[in-house]
Amino acid sequence: MNNVASILILAFLAISFIQSGYDKLFYWKDNLEWLKEHFSKTPLKNHVGLALLHILVLELISGILCVVGCIELVINNGRLFGFYGAVFSCITLIMLLFGQRLAKDYDGARTIVIYFIPAVMAVYWLN
């Protein structure tokens, strides 16, 4: 296997985003309440529900593309779906980072950077 590192990073991203999307989908009300408080002093305070929906959709798209990318790499060394999964992961993480910085949650923003590094590595390797 020539793509072990790419497969491992795509699996990491897939698990991270699918689990996060699952959590948002099945615990919507709890997430929404917490986020409304989290963003209560930001310009997003009246748009938290819509922002949460956008993040949910992007996380699910990212996770699904990463799963398909793993399968594609294993079956025929194809990189297209993995590449798009990594790109969508980066876009999603940038949006999450923006929200954390806007809310002045610098510890949360720092955590997102930890996820962003392997996502960018995947974009580079799969390009």
Defining traits:
5 helices, single chain, 0% strand, mainly alpha, elongated, 127 residues
How would you describe this protein?
This is DoxX family membrane protein. With 127 residues, the chain is mostly helical. It has one domain. Helix content is 84%, strand content 0%. The chain is built from 5 helices and no strands. 29% of the residues are buried.
Provide the fold topology.
Layout: H1 4-26, H2 28-38, H3 48-76, H4 80-102, H5 106-126
Helix pairs in contact: 1-3, 1-4, 1-5, 3-4, 4-5
Radius of gyration: 15 Å
Poorly predicted runs are none
**Oligomerization status of the protein chains:** single chain
| SS summary, helix count | 5
Integer count of domains: 1
Strand-pairing-aware structural class: mainly alpha
**Element string (H = helix, E = strand):** HHHHH
Percentage of residues in strands: under 5%
The main pleated sheet reads as: none
The average pLDDT is 96
Strand elements, count: 0
User: Helicity range of the residues?
Assistant: over 70%
Task: Explain briefly what this protein structure is.
The chain is mainly α. Helices cover 84% and strands 0% of the residues. The protein has helices spanning 4-26, 28-38, 48-76, 80-102, 106-126.
